[in-house]
Amino acid sequence: MNGTSAHKPGAELRRGRLFRVEWPTLALIAACYAFWFWAGAFLFPVMPALALVLMGIAVALHSSLQHEALHGHPTRITGVNEALVFLPIGLFYPYRRYKHTHLQHHADERLTDPYDDPESYYRALTDWQVLPSILKTLLRWNNTLLGRISIGPALMITGFLISELRELRAGDRQVRSAWLQHLAGLLPILPIISLTFGIPLWLYAITSVYLGLSLIAIRSYCEHQWSERPDGRTIIVENSILAPLFLNNNLHFVHHKQPRAAWYELPALYRARREEWQRMNDGYVFRNYFEVLRAFALSVKEPVVHPVLQRGEAETRPEMIADQAFRPRRFRINIHGGATAPIPAEPKHE
């Protein structure tokens, strides 16, 4: 009897956690869809340009909410979370494919690897060497912030769809299932856009969807860099007017260290250990995205070719790339937390 009574509170606690709902996230999901629908149904007929811009903001927010859902929010029930962000107002990316690749990306020891990190913008040396010159030029421009915003979404969509077609032709059942689920979500969305809103699908795709992806690209542009220490590969952008749109994922290092923390918990987690977080990630810190813009608007942040990993023969013979060794971007932190000046990376200790 005592064993039963001792077990019961634990079972109730587990059930309570299972059915716990994060109401701020749930409310934001509802608000995102409502805002998107209002802009399309009521604003577009009278102010079409503004409506398309606002719908683009909704697309970006929806992407951030999908990111929350795949990390176990706003409930602890996977199917419920997926259903809440199921409708693909961003059109191009199946939620389940995003979830699969993003959770792979969270293996911090493989961050930035051209093959093992699905979200890496680096290319393997052998792949780079066979690319056409025009594509090399585009990829270099894509490594500037203005390039990432302007051509980044087009390159990303094209590369993603080519990769997915390759997987589908190879008979990958998981990929096929994800796309079937995605197409089911498009069945109501496409008629709503074209018939209810009266927006041509091509116009919605090249304006609202593209804008939404460009906004997200501001965040993802500098999220990661190569560093020999995995903790030095992930950024902290302390403050930004875009933080609500990114659901505080500008504090990206904190998110990688505590991926189950809800978006509204991240600022307090960062403030509580600010100096420690900055030491842990080797000072890869910017005060805001304006600093990122000033530094990299037209300047390449990093080489396209990964400086260390996946370099073929050079990877097994470090002396071949000793003269080309890439130094991770580390910053001297001033009293306000801003990134003031690059300082040399410390050499690897043997």
TrEMBL record:
Q: Which residues form the Fatty acid desaturase domain?
A: 49-285
Pfam families referenced in this protein's UniProt entry, alphabetically = FA_desaturase (PF00487)
GO biological process terms held by the UniProt record: lipid metabolic process
Task: State the InterPro entries in the record.
Answer: FA_desaturase_dom (IPR005804)
Mind listing the UniProt keywords for this protein, alphabetically? Membrane, Transmembrane, Transmembrane helix
Which CDD domains did the record assign? DesA_FADS-like
Instruction: Provide the transmembrane region boundaries.
Output: 21-39, 45-65, 77-95, 145-165, 177-195
Q: What is the protein's name according to its record?
A: Fatty acid desaturase
Whose protein is this, by species?
A: Phyllobacterium salinisoli
